[in-house]
UniProtKB/TrEMBL annotation:
<dbReference type="InterPro" id="IPR051678">
    <property type="entry name" value="AGP_Transferase"/>
</dbReference>
<dbReference type="InterPro" id="IPR011009">
    <property type="entry name" value="Kinase-like_dom_sf"/>
</dbReference>
<dbReference type="Pfam" id="PF01636">
    <property type="entry name" value="APH"/>
</dbReference>
<feature type="domain" description="Aminoglycoside phosphotransferase">
    <location>
        <begin position="22"/>
        <end position="217"/>
    </location>
</feature>
<protein>
    <submittedName>
        <fullName>Phosphotransferase</fullName>
    </submittedName>
</protein>
<feature type="compositionally biased region" description="Low complexity">
    <location>
        <begin position="1"/>
        <end position="24"/>
    </location>
</feature>
<dbReference type="InterPro" id="IPR002575">
    <property type="entry name" value="Aminoglycoside_PTrfase"/>
</dbReference>
<feature type="region of interest" description="Disordered">
    <location>
        <begin position="1"/>
        <end position="25"/>
    </location>
</feature>
Amino acid sequence: MRGARSRSGCRSTRSTPTRTTPGWRPRELLRQEARVYRHLASSAVPVPRLVDLLHLELDVLVCEFMEADGTVARSQELGGIIAALHQLPAPGGLPLEHGPDAFPSVLAERIARRWSTLDVPATPRQELPTAPHPALLTAAPPDLTTPSLLHLDVRASNTIVRDGRITALVDWSNSLIGDPALELARIHENARLPENGIDFPDLLRGYAAVRPLPRRTAECWRLYLLDAAVMLAVVFTSEAPDAERGPLLVRRVAELAGADLARVVHPALRTAML
């Protein structure tokens, strides 16, 4: 739950979340989020102040209460915040499976696992593409000498905005250590959904004002975009079925898997392709 108040001030509490990744337990997710909040407490990345992590009947993460006022975040400001996040040293203590050495295999495994769930009654089989071979998936990411902490769920509902300025980036349950380009690919796909409130070119301009855009091969970008697209397709065909969006998002997976990538991505992203 969010927004519980106490006499000592305003604070928000969040009960144990769920995660579909095998081997992950809810308590570990809350510990990870608490660790991220501590790591970013004095940085240029705005996050709520961590109050406590309580182990009660339900594990509860207690944070400073931060109220949005309904104004809209500027994508350029958001891009600068994401770039500042990627410039910081990655925090220690995150689970080993989320470390840089495991990054390619974790990515390949979750794409294959999610892909296998796309064959559902609401999605005609003829719309499903063939999953890329695992060897292609693990070979695409570059060797990372300086991996970054990634949020991986950047969208309007995870930003707290007051007076048109972003005061906090919340919900770090999807975060991992990896390639900053993966974050931008996820944002690229999230920006296709209007409710996420992202102007992708503006966001890239804000990012580039803080640090250079990561340049990757077309196949690397394809992998990262597929990771995002498959996730969204699973959400809208299985987890929150939507008769209109589900098939559209499955077709997006097919589009990214088989087309000349430059034809199916925003022109702003093409500038970051090697």
